[in-house]
Amino acid sequence: MARRTIISGNWKLNLSVAEGVDLANALKDSAAASEAEVVVFPTALSVACVADACTDSAVAVGVQNIYWEDAGAFTGEASAPLAKAAGCSWVLIGHSERRQYFGETDETVNKRLQATLNAGLKPMVCIGETLAEREAGNLEEVLSTQIKGAIGDLSADQLKELVIAYEPVWAIGTGVVATDEQAQDAHAFVRSVVAEVLGAEAADAMRILYGGSVKPDNAAGLLGKPDIDGALVGGASLKQDSFNGIIDAAAAASV
Ligand code: 13P
Fold it and tell me: Is 12 in the pocket of ligand 1 (CB under 6 A)?
């Protein structure tokens, strides 16, 4: 099955409102010209203004995290319905930085995933192993546990819009990108776990993105692999030249 490529940028804790709006505006032309879906994840502070700037463009906008309750006495949190009202169509869930620094677990990933789906937003769930886990031979066990924990008892029908981002922790922000083969092997394994849980049809349709030191010069090789359906980009998504370069690489990889 043909799966539409997604090129997404996780801005993490970077860029002011004005900088984010400027960057989003600078991505519109290449996003419009590209076959790929282009998504950016600004900070919670700038998401509404970036979404406003992206109205009627080919750039979609998402939040980097949501809480699973819709509203109430939860100081400091943002919810899926409020993200939707602010113009978001995507939610990033379970990034390794949230697992590492903010106590995210497979159980809370599942709660956020359910809240995202309930609000009618599209979830992008991040998984990935640390270097120690890979070196100890635990890659498959870690990925399998993270996927099954995230999906919980949700059905293939409920998870039609789910996108999984495989981000090996050792490749994030390090400049050490997984080789095309390492990434392909992990993606094929992720797809096999999705098939085990949700069935072959759902697995075949699911888009699995690679993240971790993706740059314009390594993107085409990764995106050319059969089970790699896009990229989740950190550092190189913060500059228009490098992110546009990756959007262009998606076109090169698909010819
Ligand atoms: P880098 O592209 O900076 O390695 O970050 C990847 C990432 O964490 C995207 O979510």
Answer: no
Boundaries of domain holding 153: 6-254
In a domain, 83, yes or no: yes
CB of 239 closer than 6 angstroms to any ligand 1 atom: no
What's residue 255's pLDDT? 55
Instruction: Read off the CATH number of the domain in which 178 is found.
Output: 3.20.20.70
Per the structure block, which two tokens stand in for 75? 């100081």
Residue bearing the CA closest to ligand 1, atom 5: 234
Residue 1 lies in a domain: no
In a domain, 191, yes or no: yes
Query: How many domains, in total, are found in the chain?
Result: 1
pTM over 0.90: yes
Q: From ligand 1's centre to the CA of 236, what distance in Å?
A: 8
236 occurs within a structural domain: yes
What CA–CA distances, in Å, run from 32 to 53, 64, 248? 14, 23, 11
The verdict on the CB of residue 173 being under 6 Å from ligand 1 is: yes
Q: Which of 7, 8, 11, 12 to mutate to test the pocket of ligand 1 (most atoms within 8 A of CB)?
A: 12
The 10s digit of each residue's pLDDT in 145-158 is 999 999 989 999 99
Q: Are 226 and 141 in contact (CB under 8 A)?
A: no
Bridge pairing between strands 122-127 and 163-166? parallel
Q: Is 32 exposed, middle or buried (0-12, 13-18, 19+ CB in 10 A)?
A: exposed
